[in-house]
Amino acid sequence: MTAWRVLAVVAGVAIVAYDLWDLVRALIVPRPATGGVVAVVARSLRRGMHRLAVHRRSFEARDRALAAVEPVLILIRLLLWMVIAYTGFALVLWGVGQRSIGHAFIDSGSSITTLGFATEPGSVSAVVTFLAAGFGLTVVALQIAYLPALYDAFNRREVLVTTLESRAGTPAWGPELLARHHLVGIEGNLATLYADWERWAADVAESHTAYPILLQLRSPHATNSWVTGLLAVLDSAAMLLAVNPSSAPPEARMCVRMGFTCFRDIARVIRVPFDPDPLPDAPIALGYEEFLEATARLERAGMPMERGPEAAWPHFRGWRVNYESIAYALADIVYAPNAPWSGTRTGIAEAVLAPARPAHRNPDEPQGDPAAAT
Questions:
Q1: Quick check: 345 and 329 in contact, CB under 8 A?
Q2: 58-76: string of b/e by CB count within 10 Å (b at 16+)?
Q3: pTM of the full predicted structure?
Q4: 143 CB contacts (<8 Å, ≥6 apart)?
């Protein structure tokens, strides 16, 4: 065995070992894996595909293009792990065998895909061939097992997001959530809603930090988004705590705390900067005029308020400062629908999608009550 073949064996073993560790770290270890060749390539491809998608003229066309990005990247990651292993085993087969480097790559491809049409005689080559076949099966098996876990977490996330269509409009908006509950007299259900979203935020914090690819998987409905959904729930809880501090359910406070904890955990994983301990009077992007319009909307819905807008604003700002910057950054990263109070989207000049409230129809007013639609 020449020095070049020895070097090829060492390099090949190192490549295969690295590929196996990267695969295990990404698909098995329940912690985020943001480094490595495959992750870097996937991020670069994602940025390029996003640039192409955001240039679509209509919101619907852009959403369809963005929805396909992550599923395509899942397949590309699988292909990259296979290609890296294919290269490593080819170097090992060339190093331990007698054939040319071209034949070694053919042998490696035949083995790692378990086709078995090209093998080199010899016990050492046979062992390497078996290992390559086992590696190929392992990659495919892990990916097959990974997808159900991934989509199970995705489905759990989307259930509560979808319920906001009737509770907070689409796209979801915090003041609209409060207004609708008071319009139909179900404000007593807010405690249960906030308790459900507290658990939801804990689940998302755990699953989306372990598998960051979930961040980019888009909702089945174009105007829904897990980012704007959580933001709407947190804004509604913050408003309720600000305007009705004595009657607001304690679940609202817990929901806000778990909500911004979820945002912060995700921000650490994807390296979004934020202030971990902001002062309550720190400035926020949302203006007082927008808050004033929201409180007027609540008054029209018949919601009683212990504090007026001027007295409630510092308290609302003190809650929102804990999560606003992260929510805006995440909404921009995932190109969430441009919901009210959700910031701007880089490269997209699009009007805010105000949530439409369905007409309140009944036998006495079949055309609906115009006052209830504002």
A1: no
A2: ebeebbebbbebbeebbee
A3: 0.87
A4: 27, 74, 78
Q: Give dist(CA 244, CA 142) in Å, integer.
A: 51
**118-156 confidence digits (pLDDT tens):** 566 667 778 888 888 888 888 888 888 888 888 999 999
Convert the pLDDT of each residue in 313-371 to its tens digit: 999 999 999 999 999 999 999 999 999 999 998 877 777 887 877 666 667 666 665 55
User: Residue 112: which of 143, 147, 88 has the closest Cα?
Assistant: 88
Q: Do residues 161 and 155 make contact, with C-beta atoms less than 8 angstroms apart?
A: no
Q: What is the pLDDT of residues 249-266, one digit of tens each?
A: 999 999 999 999 999 999
Please answer whether residues 298 and 182 qualify as being in contact, where contact means their C-beta atoms are separated by less than 8 angstroms.
yes
* CB 282, CB 321: distance < 8 Å: yes
365: three-class secondary structure by DSSP: strand
Question: Using CA of residue 116, residue 117, residue 123, residue 126, what is the dihedral sign?
Answer: negative
Sign of CA dihedral 146, 150, 155, 156: positive
Q: Are 368 and 359 in contact (CB under 8 A)?
A: yes
Q: Taking every pair of C-alpha atoms in the chain, what is the biggest distance, in angstroms?
A: 93
